[in-house]
Amino acid sequence: MNGAEAFVGTLKACGVEVCFANPGTSEMQLVGAIDKQDGMRAILGLFEGVVTGAADGYGRMADKPAVTLLHLGPGLGNGLANLHNARRAASPVINMVGDHATYHLHYDAPLTSDAAGVARPMSDWVRVSKSERDLAQAGAEAFAVAQSYPGKIATVVVPADHAWTEGSAIVAPQLAAAPAKAPAEAIEAAAAALRDGTGPKALFLGGRALREDALVQAGRIAAATGARIVCETFAARLHRGAGRVPVERLPYFGEQAAAFLADLETIVFCGCEPPVSFFAYPGKPSWLSPEGANLVRLASLREDAPAALTGLADALGAPSQPANVQQSASFPADDADKLAPAGVGAVLSALIPENAIISDEGATAGLAIFGMTAGAKAHDWLMLTGGAIGQGLPLAVGAAVACPDRKVLALQADGGGMYTPQALWTMAREKLDVVTVILNNGSYAILNIELMRVGVQNPGPKALSMLDLRNPSLDWCSLSEGMGVPAERATTVGEFRKALAGALAAKGPRLIEAMI
Amino acid sequence: MNGAEAFVGTLKACGVEVCFANPGTSEMQLVGAIDKQDGMRAILGLFEGVVTGAADGYGRMADKPAVTLLHLGPGLGNGLANLHNARRAASPVINMVGDHATYHLHYDAPLTSDAAGVARPMSDWVRVSKSERDLAQAGAEAFAVAQSYPGKIATVVVPADHAWTEGSAIVAPQLAAAPAKAPAEAIEAAAAALRDGTGPKALFLGGRALREDALVQAGRIAAATGARIVCETFAARLHRGAGRVPVERLPYFGEQAAAFLADLETIVFCGCEPPVSFFAYPGKPSWLSPEGANLVRLASLREDAPAALTGLADALGAPSQPANVQQSASFPADDADKLAPAGVGAVLSALIPENAIISDEGATAGLAIFGMTAGAKAHDWLMLTGGAIGQGLPLAVGAAVACPDRKVLALQADGGGMYTPQALWTMAREKLDVVTVILNNGSYAILNIELMRVGVQNPGPKALSMLDLRNPSLDWCSLSEGMGVPAERATTVGEFRKALAGALAAKGPRLIEAMI
User: Fold this and answer.
1) DSSP sequence for A407-464
2) Domains in chain B, ordered, with CATH?
3) Global pTM?
C-alpha cells in the first residue's frame, strides 16, 4: 500500500472514524486513501475554519479525535483560529496537512509555504513525515498525542510523495498514557484548606471537572464544607440543567469577576488554573483572585479531575450524595413582547430538550441566556474557549456528527457567525440535527462596551462604524437558504417560541434568525 | 499622543490612506487612533481573509500599501491565506496586529498566542513593538519595507499597552530605496543571447515587466529579434487588451507548459524566475524549461523591469515601437445557447469596458475566459498569484477602493468564492463599483482533473463527493442578497449578456450567478 493508505489505515486502527476535509491537489492521494478505507467517514467543509471547528466539537463530545484534511500552509492558516479554540478546550484533534512532494519544495512553486511553521503556534505537537513508511508511524504517534488527557492538537505534515509512494504498511496503535493522577499531597492540602479555612470557600472547576461524574463529587464536597462551586468563564463542556449539581459561572468582565471572587478566603482549583482577565485594561488588574486568599491546586487540567475530586470528597468524609441539585425551572415571557436576549433565554429555559447539546457563541446575548437556562432539562453547554470568534457553527457540526441521536442547538451571535457561515452548508449536506439560532443585534456589541472600557474617549463616527453591522443589514435567512438550510425570522417572543418549537420537533438542520 | 496615535499618524505621514480592518478588544486604541486621523479611511471586513485580500488588491493597483488591522494571532491566522497570495504577488502590504498588553502575556489568558510566530511564514518582515515610542518607529520601518520594489509584506505586532500609553510622537517617513537596477552584464548577456541565438526565442515576463511601459519595450525587442513574449501563468497584474503588446500566457498544467516551451532555444527572463509546475505529479518533471535551452536572467522580480527591458531594447538597436499590437476583437455567441465558459468569455470579449480591472479567480473556467478576452478593450487582469483560493472577491474590493473611477469585474469560481463570501458585504457597505460574476459549475472542477493526474485509480463515491458542491447546491443570488448586493442568475448566453450589460451600465455592486 502507499503511504497515504498506510497513514489512514493506521488512524482507523487507532479508532479514528471521521475525517473533516477541505482537500486540494496535493491531498488527492489522501482523498483516495479515505475513499478506500471502510469505516472512515468523510465530511466536506467549504472553508477550513469549519473543518477545524468541527473537529473540536467532535473531540469535545466523542472524547476521541477526528482527523482534519487541510491543503498546505494556507489551508492550515484558514483553520488556525478554530485550532486555537480547540487547543484552549484541550480537545483531541489530529490534523493531516498536505504539502508539496519533498523534491518539489526547493523550486518554490506558488503554493510553497512553511506548513510546519504555520502549524506550530496552534499545535501541541507537529511532525513532518520523513518517508512513506514513517508517515504511518507519524499517524500512530499523532493519535497517542491527541489522546493525552484530556486532549491535544497533533499535526502531521504529509509530503505528497510520501503519500503516493508504495511500500508502506499500517502501524499498530500506540496506547495513550493513562491520565496522570493528582498527587496525594495535593488532595491532603485541599482537604486541610477546606476543613480548616474559616471564611468563605469555593471549588473552582474547569476541564473534565465539569462533567457529571466530577460534579457529583464536587457536590459531595460542597455538602461537607459549604464551599461554593464555581467554573471558569469559558469551559469546553459543562454538564448542567435539572437534576445536575449546579455551578456558578465566573463573570466575563474582569472587575465583575474580581468582585465575584472578592470575599473568598479559600479557593481549591481542579482542572484549571486561577482565572485572569480575558484582556488587559489600563489601570485594572489582570489577576482576579483576592489578595491573601489561600489558593490550592487540587488537580491541573492534565490530571484526572474526577479521581481527584473523589479523593478529596472521601478525605473529607463527605456524604455519598450532593446536598444540592438543580431544580427544574423555566422563565415566563410574554409572547407579544418584542424579542430580546431575555426572551430568547426564557423560551430556551422551557424548550431545551432533554440531553441537548448547546454550542454557545452568543457573545453578549449568550451570557444572559446562559443564566436563564440553569433549570432547563439536563444538557451539555459548549463554550468559546479561546476567544477566536467563528467557533459556534462549526462546533455544532462536529457535536452533531459525534452525537447523531442528540439535538444540537447553536446559539450564534451575528458578528461571530459571519466568520464561518459555510458551516451551514455542511449541516445541510450531512442532514445534521442542528437548530441554529442567530442572535442578530446588527453589531459587534461587545466591542461597543470594550471601546469605552479600554479608555477611548468620545469615539467618532468612523470608530463606531467599525463596530456596526447594519450598513447593510445581514439577512441570515437569505444566507441560510442560500446554503440549503431552511430558515425563518422571529421578531417577537411568540414568533421565536413557535419557530423554535417547530424546529425542535423536526429532524435536520433549521435556522432561526432572532432579531434582538 | 499615545502610541496608537503616533503609529497611525506615522503611517499617514508616509502616505498610507486606507485601513482594512477587523478589530477586537485589544485593538480598540488603534480604532480610536484611526478615528481621529484625518485622511485615513477605515473599511470594515467581516472576516480577516477579506481584509488581507483587499489590501493585496489595493497594493497591486495603487502601488503603495494599505494597512490592515487584525486581532491577535487567531485573527491574523484567518488572514494568512490571502497574505500568502499577496506575498507571491509582491504586493506592498502593512499589517498591524494587536496583541495583549506586554504584562498580560505571561498570564496566558484564553486569547494568548504567538502572534509573531503566526506572522512569520507569510510575512517578509515581522517586527514586535518594544515601547509606545518604538511603535511609531516600527510604523516608519514597516512602510519602507512594504515599499521595497515592487512590494513586501511587513507585519507589526502592537501590544495593547504600547498603543494606549501616552508620550509617543510621530516619526518622519523613511524613503523607500529606489528599485535595484539589473546589472549591465545581464543586459549584455541577454542582448547577445537574443542576437546570436539561431533557434526560437522568447522573453519570459513576470512582475512589473507586465505593465504597459515594460510591455512596449518587450514589443520593441520582439520586433528586433522575433522573440515570442510569454508571461508566467499567475501574474499579479497584466496590462492587456486592444492596442497593447500581446502576451502569451504559460499554460497551467505542467505537461502542457513544458510542451508550450519545448521548442525554445533561448529564453530571457525578466521580473520572474524560470517556471516550475504548480504541483508535483508522480513521474512528471517539476522543471518546465527545455533541456539545453539557453536561459538568461535579465532582471529578477526585485530589479527594475521596465528599465532593464528598455536597456535591452536599446542594446539591440530595436525600433522605437513594437511591430505587433493587439487588434480589437470579440467572439460571437448565440444568445439562445445554454451558458458555458465559452459563452461567458464571448460576452466578456465584447462588453469589458475600457480600463476595467478584472480580478480572476475563475479557476478552470477562468483559463478559457482569459484566452477569449485578449482583444477586448484595454484592461488590467489580476490573477491568483499564490494558489490559495478565496482571493478573488477580496482582491476586487481592494482594487475598487484604489481605483474608484474604474469598473472592477470579479470572475469568481463557486468553490473558491465560498472561502471569503463576506467580501460582498464590504462591497455593499462601501458601494464599490464591482460586478461579481460567479462561475457556478457546482464542483471543485480542477480537483476532478487533478485526482486522475496524481494517479488515484477508480475513485469511489466518497472521493468524488469530496469534490462535489451540488449536495446541496449553493444559491449565490440568495447569498449575495443576504449581504446586500443585488443579484440575478443567468442560464443562457442571452441572459448573461443582458445581466452583464445592465450591471456594467449601473454604478455600484452587482452579482451575476452564471450557471455554467
Assistant:
1) -EEEEEEHHHHTTSTTHHHHHHHTT--EEEEEEE-SB-HHHHHHHHHTT--S--HHHH
2) 3-164 (3.40.50.970), 184-315 (3.40.50.1220), 341-515 (3.40.50.970)
3) 0.98
